[in-house]
Fold this protein.
Amino acid sequence: MRGPFVMVDCRREEERLRSSIEALVSNAAPDPGPDPIRGAWSGTLFLDQIDALSFECQRLLLWFLKHTLGGSMGAESGWPVRLAAGVRNGTRSGGFLPELQDEIDKIRVDLSEVHAGAA
């Protein structure tokens, strides 16, 4: 799948992501500003530092993934956006919904070993 690559820094842009999800669920227009989900249509939406999202936003994202997108990772089930997620320091104990982690934790890429080898 080719297309745009849209990154959302979840630590700084939680409201932007929340607005985008809520707008798609309700078929409304998102708050002013770039809509990351619609902006990634036919491409990839990368949610960086996903573990920084509040529990409320994690629940909303999980509901959206399971009910609106039909499950695991979107593109494979017909949704025209590929979803990728990153965490900076791993998921901290008690700070990440296990159900959401299970939904998005299909393929792991550990770049710390690659980066350390390049030094």
Summary: The helical segments are 14-26, 36-39, 55-68, 98-104, 111-118. Confidence is low (pLDDT under 50) at residues 71-76.
